[in-house]
Design goal:
A seven-stranded antiparallel beta sheet has the order 2-1-4-6-5-7-3, with no helix packed on it. It has one helix at 2-11, and strands at residues 21-26, 35-41, 49-50, 59-63, 70-74, 84-93, 102-106. It has one domain (19-106): Crystallins (Gamma-B Crystallin, domain 1). With 107 residues, the protein is mainly β. The model is unreliable at 1-14 (pLDDT under 50).
Amino acid sequence: MRFSILIPLFLSVTPFTAADWWLQAFTGENCSGQEVGSWVSPERHDQCENFDSLVPIKSVRGDASGVGGTLQVFNRACSDPFEMYSLRNECSNAGSWGEWKSFRIEY
């Protein structure tokens, strides 16, 4: 009986459902500053998307494991894997690359 009560309490604490991918973009390092973009979707999405922000995106936080993928961010186009980072519910700074410019989910 106790076990069945604990499961709904645990699930209600999670910010996104298990079937979502999500991403947040920020103007400051360490996911600080102004949030300039936010995406949440329960559907698979593997197209390359450019950040449509007028300000440089210095850091991002996100995760696509809910849809069985890996969220990747790039400082150029998605076809340039040299400057790329994979996110799993963590913050990533653009660092010496200057800014993040695009993202995609790889399955």
